[in-house]
Amino acid sequence: MEVPEAKTLEAKDAASPGQIRVRNRALILAAAEEVFATQGYRGATTAAIAKKAGLPKANVHYYFGTKEALYAAVLEDILGLWLGELDRITEERDPATALGDYIRAKVRLSRERPLASKVYANEMIRGAPHTRDFLKNELRNLVTSKAKVLEAWAAAGKIEPVDPVHLFSVIWAATQHYADFEVQVGALLGRRQLAADDYDEAADTIVRMVLRCCGIRYGSGR
Amino acid sequence: MEVPEAKTLEAKDAASPGQIRVRNRALILAAAEEVFATQGYRGATTAAIAKKAGLPKANVHYYFGTKEALYAAVLEDILGLWLGELDRITEERDPATALGDYIRAKVRLSRERPLASKVYANEMIRGAPHTRDFLKNELRNLVTSKAKVLEAWAAAGKIEPVDPVHLFSVIWAATQHYADFEVQVGALLGRRQLAADDYDEAADTIVRMVLRCCGIRYGSGR
DNA sequence: ATTAATTTTGACCAAACGGTCAGGTTTTTA
DNA sequence: TAAAAACCTGACCGTTTGGTCAAAATTAAT
Hints:
2 copies of one chain form a homodimer. In chain A, 71% of the residues lie in helices and 0% in strands. Chain A is built from 11 helices and no strands. In chain A, helix 7 crosses helix 9 (164-180). Chain A starts with 7 loop residues before the first helix and ends in a 9-residue tail after the last helix. At the A-B interface, helix 2, helix 7, helix 8, helix 9 and helix 10 of A face helix 1, helix 6, helix 7, helix 8 and helix 9 of B. Chain A binds a DNA duplex (30 and 30 nucleotides) through residues 4, 7, 10, 17-18, 20-21, 24, 45-47, 55-59, 61-63, 65-67.
């Protein structure tokens, strides 16, 4: 019997039918990434996530059930990012450009998605309770396959032999450092936030280290 | 923190009064380091710290007052470790041995005090709420002074010019990675825990990267 | 228009949280 | 010894936690 009152405030952001779920899940996931990144898993509260998403807490539980399931969903999104770019490291490509492009892509990711990096770092520091299988399967297999690329390059005399696990470990450590430890690097550079140039110089330094480590001449001596 | 009235500076050694205080504070600090490392600041509970120390929770508050004060005490202990070894990087020494020794010392620290590294990493990821001053003063000054060493080495033709902030950032990132991300490196190497040899190989790789980055010949020739 | 499905949310709960405190015990000092 | 200082801790407190739920509102399907 009631005439529907004009819910104008609600209607401004009208989503296409059936898309409410998608939009709200995205809102919650983005808020959760930030809170998990800065507070850690145990320190993050569903109330804080809800507030940041602009929704009542019960709504968060409606879409994701438990805090743990929400964390798993956030992590799922992030793991895809990590494996990205790696597939462009192939035997056919030139080692210097393949490794250089990869490192620069990782540094760019640190600048564009620092929160994702921090969530991942927190997960590793805690001992990877939700990512053991990912590490032992997907990631290990990927590194194994990239190890063969490095061996092929070495056999062709294009690089010196290098331990692939340590090489990738150091690349990941160095690149993600500019997301996870941004506040430290910023303090050392006397900045409140890192600028685009800082990331470029960081990438240059890391590329130079890695390529020369592999015996490739790079940025030759001045 | 309140300090009891002067208990005569002389009799501080064997079986002196205050022995209990020293021992229990050490017990609590060690337990706190572990819990803060694995759970983060917000995730750590005073109850968990007390249980790990084998003491009732009220005892923890008796010695340290608040959780925040306890965290500050843990962090205080750790910051000293970080600045250690750096003073052996001097203009007079040979760059290769000075940097090599420093990197190996940092890797050794990652193996021997992984929890300290994790607490520090957590603090940085959160944006350094308790360490802003340390970063902007002590640490920045130290890096500035080490930058002069690098410049002197470069002026003497012993190394190529390198940005000191990025060089040290990458050294710290790479070395501490073997503490903070031990579970990831272990998974890639197919081990449950890293062995002494793994740390040695990690140090070799990092030393090779850094020295060659600086234009120093190192390792298998080419 | 009616029904069915989905979405929303204030109110609520038991457990866990950081912290307090009174009153006891042990150790040190005089 | 006796007094004083230091230490210990079970019990407790107000708040916050992750999670639930029923009822209402909205949207989609018939």
